[in-house]
Amino acid sequence: MSERLRGLEWPTLLLLAGCYALWALGTTWAAAVWLPLGMILVTLGAALHSSLTHEMLHGHPFRSRFWNGALVFPALSLVVPYLRFKDTHLAHHRDSILTDPYDDPESNFLDPKVWHRLPRAARMVMRVNNTLAGRMLLGPLLGTLAFALSDLRAVRRGDRRVLLGWALHVPAVGVVVWWMLSLGRMPAWAFLLSTYAALSILKIRTFLEHRAHGDARGRTVIIEDRGPLALIFLNNNLHVVHHMHAMVPWYRLPVMYRRNPQRYLSRNGDYRYRSYAEVFRRYFLRAKDPVPHPLWPRG
């Protein structure tokens, strides 16, 4: 029997409608009335939209890949092409390659041989980026540059799939630019800063989702948070549950975890945090992991 919820996934559709309303309200009325309020709404709307995009590429709320993609077509976060996100993220879901510096597209680790060849200044920046504060401040910029440069190399090698992803991204960004020029009441600097802040929030989720571990099953985290960040992340803080049941919609993940937490914690070797508050306390100014992969040979 399919793990997908039978029938129309109303919670996802209603949340998506609320997400667009939040973002539209932030860029128009709220920005005109009080700019800080508008920026907060745009930040929350763009962050939530990214989480919903993740939901769509996993096959929700419809069975049609086209209509799922169409629902999140406007690129509210500006920098992540939907098709590229889809391709790289689904490749990431091969648990056997998690954290691999080459094969896992979402790995935060480097091959130690590459790390030791980097200039001292670059290593200093990447060490800062390995603290939670650094990841929120520098992570969106560094991650976007690395992603775009990697895709540019792929396009130069003749990868048409990557080129298609970026070509489709142009009208997706165009929709947002049109809205801001014709209806938006927010200064460009405020809009860009709000969008960057949304990407910073998302870096909280990805900061320690996966760890270096000899057993692939022990690499994926559980964060038992039920607060606002869990909602913005659509319960992906219960990350091992999502990896084990990638077709299950976001609103069913907490129920699955509560029914049998030991099943998931025994699978991931009790890689768990009680809340994002604990994560902030422990790692805001301190790195959790080294940049070079600790299990890779250094020779």
TrEMBL record:
Pfam families found in the cross-reference section: FA_desaturase (PF00487)
Domain of life: Bacteria
Signal peptide limits: none
GO molecular function per UniProt: sphingolipid delta-4 desaturase activity
Bilayer-crossing regions: 7-25, 31-54, 66-85, 132-150, 162-181, 187-208
GO biological process, one term: ceramide biosynthetic process
The entry's keywords: Membrane, Transmembrane, Transmembrane helix
GO cellular component, as recorded: membrane
Domain Fatty acid desaturase, chain residue ranges per copy: 33-271
InterPro entries xref list: FA_desaturase_dom
Entries under PANTHER family matching the protein: SPHINGOLIPID DELTA 4 DESATURASE/C-4 HYDROXYLASE PROTEIN DES2, SPHINGOLIPID DELTA(4)-DESATURASE DES1
Protein name per Swiss-Prot or TrEMBL: Fatty acid desaturase
Source species of the chain: Mameliella alba
